[in-house]
Structures are given as C-alpha cells and as structure tokens.
Amino acid sequence: DTAVSQTPKYLVTQMGNDKSIKCEQNLGHDTMYWYKQDSKKFLKIMFSYNNKELIINETVPNRFSPKSPDKAHLNLHINSLELGDSAVYFCASSPQGLGPDTQYFGPGTRLTVL
Amino acid sequence: SQKIEQNSEALNIQEGKTATLTCNYTNYSPAYLQWYRQDPGRGPVFLLLIRENEKEKRKERLKVTFDTTLKQSLFHITASQPADSATYLCALANTGGFKTIFGAGTRLFVKA
Predict the structure, then answer these.
(1) Which chain A positions have a beta carbon within 8 Å of B95's beta carbon?
(2) Taking CB atoms and an 8 Å limit, are B87 and A41 in contact across chains?
(3) Left (φ > 0), alpha (ψ -120 to 50) or beta: where does B105 sit?
(4) Chain A: residue nearest B47 by CA?
(5) Which of A68, B51, B78, B87 is paired with B106 by a 20 to 30 Å CA distance?
(6) pLDDT tens digit sequence for B89-101
C-alpha cells in the first residue's frame, strides 16, 4: 500500500503555464509538507500544513499556492511557471509537527519547465 | 544563517568495511537530528533519529553519534553491503518545529 502518493510523477511544461501537483497520504497523519529538491540535491522546505492549516511558508513566491482540502491531501498549484521552477518536488507527512516526528516522503514529481 | 554541511564528495568503500558519514552544522541548536536514505528517483526514507541529550543511537548495522558541542553527527554503517549504496541525508529540527532542515547529502558507493 502506498503511504504517500504524488501525481504526476513527471511534468513537462512551457514557461508561463499553470500546473498542479497532487499529494495524498493514507497514514492518518496530521501534518503535511512540500519540499523542493534542486539540481544540487538540496531538499528545501516550502510549506508545512497541520490539520489543514498553513504553519510554515518559507518565503516561497506567491505563484505557489498550496491547498489542503482535508488532512489527507495537500496539493500544490503553481502559476506562471518559470525556468527556475524546474526541480523535483516532494510531498511528505508526519504524525504531528510537534516533537521528533519522522517524515514519510512521496516518490517525487519531476517538473521540467521549457 | 543556519547551515548543514555533509561530505560533498562521494564516499567509496569496499564491501564489509564500515562507512562513516559526517554532518556538521552551524548557527543552529537542534532538538534532534535525523538521518535519511535517498535512492535515485525516490523520496528520502527515514533511518534514525537522535535527540540532543543523547550521545549515540544504534539500529542493526547503523550507528549515529551526536555531539552538540562540536555541532556534529557521525553516521556509521558497519559491515557495509552494495545494497547500502545511496545518498544519505542529515536533517535537523527543533521541538515544536514543522520545519526540518536537510543537508545536501553524501553519496555512498559500496563495491563488492
């Protein structure tokens, strides 16, 4: 059974387009995250959500808008895509953001902006 | 600013030897430190967690040490196997933190 799933796995699009990435977790976790991993392999947090509420927004451009319709889902919508948005985006979840909770990552979505 | 440094160069070792990976950090006082494994094309997978008041943690062939004075963690894989070849990420977080900071990772190659 897939714990954290993301769709699509690959996304190739033109500059200026709008795209969405979906994430779902079936672990019953309260907290979900979006990370960006660039070409240098740094995994950088973008957003944290706890019980559908935004907790962390790491100075991400407002072209990126996360949406959490329920605790099991955290989708990422990106407007006016730019070349620099090309990266692998990972969704993750944890039981709760308080305390030493380990995170469970999805398989990643490789976004290529042409 | 907060910074995590891991061996930027790949680590090549022979099967059966002990691999030792280093994680150094600055401008941060984490409540706990985690190690993750990442295989190509996949998301990171949690391996071990150690708290600030712990010196050492073990799990099967894995051992983690945490020195908050040196601001350093060492990650050891004993009796290494080719299947251990992957990138290993160090991650820091505080209590009440919804924010975990990851290092860039160290690529480990274990030769048969």
Answers:
(1) 98-100
(2) yes
(3) left
(4) A102
(5) B51
(6) 999 987 766 778 8
Q: State the pairing for strand pair B56-59/B106-111.
A: unpaired
Predicted confidence (pLDDT) per residue in A85-107, tens digit: 999 999 999 887 555 668 899 99
Q: Return the DSSP state at B31.
A: S
Q: Which site among A27, A102, A109 would you substitute to test the B interface, given the most B Cβ atoms closer than 10 Å to its Cβ?
A: A102
- Selecting from A33, A42, A107 the residue whose C-beta is nearest the C-beta of B42 gives A107
| Positions of chain A with pLDDT lower than 70, given as ranges | 1, 97-101
- Amino acid symbol at B104: A
pLDDT digits (tens, 9 = 90+) for B2-51: 789 998 789 999 999 999 999 999 988 888 899 999 999 999 999 999 98
Residue B100 and residue A45: Cβ atoms within 8 Å?
A: yes
A60: left (phi over 0), alpha (psi -120 to 50) or beta: beta
Which residues, including other chains, have CB under 8 Å from residue B42's CB and lie 6 or more apart? Answer: A107, A108
> What is the rounded CA–CA span in Å between residue A52 and residue A30?
8
CA–CA min distance B16, chain A (Å)? 28
Closest CA to B13 of B105, B104, B76: B76
